[in-house]
Amino acid sequence: MMPRFSRRAGLFPAALAAPVLLAATLALAEEKPSPPSKTGDAMPPVELTVDLDGDKPRCSPAELRLPAQTNVELKVVNRADRPVTLTAPGQFENRNVLHADGDLVHVMSNEGYLVKQGGKGTLKLRTLAAGEYPYACTSVQNQDAPFRGKLILAPSAG
Length: 158
What we know:
single chain; alpha+beta; Immunoglobulin-like; six-stranded mixed sheet; five-stranded mixed sheet; 1 helix; 46% strand; globular; EfeO-type cupredoxin-like domain-containing protein; Cupredoxin
């Protein structure tokens, strides 16, 4: 003879499971967010601004510090009354540029971006290996007098 189970007996395990699942879900929801990845995907954007110093462009910061071999977001703001080309040999090659938008145009030399007069844009990059590299801001109207800065790529902590 088979034992008989009542319908209520079958509901008892399900009634216990619901609060356990709810408690587990709440515990997961209360966990703190994970720290930023070491690849730099969560790094806040860095801003590079271009102004005119007389007739010559001036980029700020003059020493642009970023983590090496990391995905970074570079916000570019051109306050000059003329287009300016940003160059950084190797850094602006297609293989290192993840995304570009706004008032930025990739220049044919594969080493820079033209920023439109009064333009703004965003470059998402994969930075080069640790080291110091030159970067420049050149006015289209005064190409013989570029601003020369330093791109400092430091090893990431950790």
